[in-house]
Fold these 2 entries.
Entry 1:
Amino acid sequence: MNTVTKYSVSDAATLYKKSRATLYKDIKNGMLSRDHDGLIDFSELLRVYGEPFGGKQQKRIDTSPIQNMNTPEYTDKTVIELKNQIDFLKKQLEKAEDRETKANARIDTLLTLIEMKPPQAVTTFTNQKSEPNIATDPPSKPKHDGLTTPEPKENPRIPVPEHIEPEPKKRGFLSRFFLPNG
């Protein structure tokens, strides 16, 4: 028996005459575990694969826990698991729809508050006028909704002063010292 207690994946594959891909698959599936340093403890290898192959040992029997897919236990477990997953997904969908409804209501409220959208029939503000009823109210002048350009009113004139003093000519750096002030 070897005195080494930890093996790398390559060394363990050589010791047990398995491919590294098989060992990585067993690690990924949780059958075999590695330590924090990435090495596999010999006791783990013994637990999963048994004694390592010697020169004259018998052929090893595969003891991996693969179930036959045609057994009733497998199909019953699969059906139960799938039903549980369906129930879980239905609950998640209901929660998502509820969040979407609340978000849409919040968006509608915010749009109403910033006056981009006309208020609904039920309003919580007391100083707002109700919307005109087309059947009973006489037609009125359409309001500016911000989507079309309003008709131009008076052309406002900007007053321009009659006399504008010209700006003084700018002087360069050297002319400030050598030319008289003017």
Entry 2:
Amino acid sequence: MSRWGDKAGALGVLTAAMGCSMCFPAIASLGAALGLGFLGQWEGLLINTLLPAFAWLALIANALGWLAHRQ
């Protein structure tokens, strides 16, 4: 369970970071080169909603992994 949560959290944070060209210009230029420039219109949703949600998901997954392994 924690591996799935960790992967989903990392993917969600990367997706939200690609939507904000002012915050992460290197990731945004890479995304624009790959044809993901359309994410700019949803920048507010990606940064204000999805980024914190996926960051919390990754944090919870890491906490569950720590509880399972105590490392």
